[in-house]
Amino acid sequence: MTRTDGYLLDNRQTEAAEHFSAFAALFDPTTFRHLEELGIGSGWRCWEVAAGGTSVVSWLAKKVGPTGRVVATGTDTSWLAPAARPPVEVRVHDLGAEEPPGEGFDLVHARLALVHVADRARAMRSMVQALRPGGRILVEDADPALQPLLCPDEHGPEQQLANRLRHGLRRLLADRGTELPCGRVLPRLLREAGMTRVQADAYFPVASPACAALESVTIQQIREQLVTAGLATDQDIDRHLANVTSGALDLTTAPMISAWGRKQ
Q1: How far is the C-alpha of 40 from the C-alpha of 62, rounded, in Å?
Q2: Helices (DSSP H) in 181-255: which residue ranges?
């Protein structure tokens, strides 16, 4: 992730490992499906942008094999240490401020990278610049403004509380300069950066156990900020966490939009 000083779900928090695990359970299958369809294989040179956990990096390493290369970058690479062995190279890198960590990549993948970058168009051009002619890119970002609710079926007080806390999360993100309409702009940014064969789709899980796991750890991570900002009380949060644990809530996430294309 970029701009970790203002990032609400800081990778340095003790709950970060649980967050990575829940997030991977939800979104890795979609990411891997798209990467497979882009043709990733042995010997490919890949750049994993703004990597947090190791799940995608490790998957890429297996796909490219010993003759390939995976450059995994981020402003905070502490969680990538277990994956830092050939063919994986870990580098500290700020997508929003620095030049690409090389060129001639066969594949660039970025998930939840652009939402924390002020100049998204520049960052997209930087990723495209790193590709070889014919190289592929897959960029994925959530779009909370497209679907702002945690419980789309708001039929009782438990669901109303859940949606109020989700609104509080969006307020905290906005206060840190996070522009929520991000996922929807990816196809346009790819075309403007010169990519061809641009396509996109969205994954929108509902009532998945992984949604509950992700919500639980997210609320624990932002609990203090919600209370300090007057967006919730400790009693509200305790009640919501109990509701999540009970399994009675049909939880969802913001749609994760995946966009991909090929460099001419």
Answers
A1: 11
A2: 186-192, 209-228, 234-246
Q: What is the pLDDT of residues 64-107, one digit of tens each?
A: 999 999 999 999 999 899 999 999 999 999 999 999 999 999 99
Nearest by Cα to 184 from 171, 205, 200, 197: 200
Residue type, 99: E
Whole-number Cα distances in Å, 177 to 8, 23, 25, 120, 195: 10, 22, 28, 13, 28
Report the alpha-carbon distance of residue 8 to residue 19 in Å, rounded: 13
Q: Report how far Cα 89 is from the mean position of its chain's Cα atoms.
A: 20
Q: Are 130 and 105 in contact (CB under 8 A)?
A: yes
What tokens does 136 get? 């592929």
Burial classification of residue 67, based on how many CB atoms lie within 10 Å of its CB (0-12 exposed, 13-18 middle, 19 or more buried): exposed
Helix 55-64, helix 16-37: angle, nearest 10: 30
Instruction: Please enumerate in sequence order all residues whose Cβ is within 8 A of that of 228, keeping only pairs 6 or more positions apart, or say none.
Output: none
Q: Which residues pair with 89 in a beta bridge?
A: 71
| Alpha-carbon gap, residue 143 to 149, rounded angstroms | 12
In tens, the pLDDT along 14-36 reads: 677 888 899 999 999 999 999 99
Hey, what amino acid is at 262? R
Query: How far apart are alpha carbons 135 and 131 in whole angstroms?
Result: 5
Kind of pairing, strands 131-142 and 195-203? unpaired
CA nearest neighbour of 255 among 186, 162, 176: 186
pTM for the structure as a whole: 0.91
Provide the strand spans (E) within the chain.
Answer: 45-49, 69-74, 88-92, 105-111, 131-142, 195-203, 256-263
